[in-house]
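I am hoping you can look over what I have pasted underneath with an eye to the fold:
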Amino acid sequence: MNSVNKRVVVITGASSGIGRATALMLAKRGDTVVLAARDAEALQELAEECEQVGGHALAVDIDVAVEQQVNQLARQALYAFDRIDVWINNAAVNTLGRFEDIPTADIHRLLEVNLMGTIHGTRAVLPHFKARGEGILINVASMVALTGQPFAVPYSISKFGIRGLSLSLAQELANQPDIHVCTVLPAVIDTPIFNHAANYMGRAAQAPKPVVRAEEVAKAITKLTRHPKKEVIVGNMARMNRAWRALAPDMFDKQFHKMIDSQHFQDEPQAPTSGNLYVPDRELTTISGGWKDKPGQEGKSSGLKRAAQVTAGAAAISATYLLATAFLNRKKEPQKLLPAATAATNEPVAQTVATVQQAVPADVVSDALATAVSGNHPAAE
């Protein structure tokens, strides 16, 4: 990388939420940020804030769904600063509702912004990274790329696609060790995305608890600009949900459906709206959507989270033990089977994990068992 201290960073979706928080955090470190979004006025205000906190900034209003505009963004960044060290694909919109009720045109638009926008950004910067022999690409996906989500099927499709892009491109670039492809997988984040989502559910949307501050995601992204890694999960609920669904998919799907239906939507009626799919929301260009400290669901959410912890932990231990049994039986070594009664103690669990690494991804098992076995359950976000 050109300098260990300063970076030239392009950020799409910079006008609000995670993008805005990341821009300010990087600017405070003295980085140069190239800010991209549809709202020119919001970008200019943000650029001024970034300059005030010690960074350099360039605002470029574009629609990431239009490839020519994204290519022009890359050209402007290179013309102004002669290089791009980091490119962050963060722009995203959302549509909520039962899949058959969401207009096809809105599904197309969401995929054009979320998935094609990420593809456009990647293709715009990749030749520059290859020419320099180095660079960091950071794609912001979501925990739904690990678990799916009901009543947000188009959004889930787009985030699965982004994760697939990152994984496959990293493999394609495996022989270029100084070009890094990173994916960020946040849980539920306090941003305006829920405030201005397209909504065909008939009920007003809200952020389902627990909610993580956008600054936590910005911290993870900022760290990746210095210390890249392939995937980073932000939020304990994302880690827990991944483990739970991997080990008990039917149970997870039923409970997740119930949770999203009850917590993602209010009782207040909502007329159908396309939200900010086609026109930016100029009234809400903040980092927060006001969800983190919103009263009314704390007890309900904490109870659900505790239930998820217990269920995920039990599923982790039970499923791991059964997988170990099946594995050892295949090896015809019944004398090595662990008694079920001891599977919940630290040492046997550790032994069990070692035997099932071929059956379940090690990080999934370790995350689940760490939650189940240690007395230290992750704190609420």
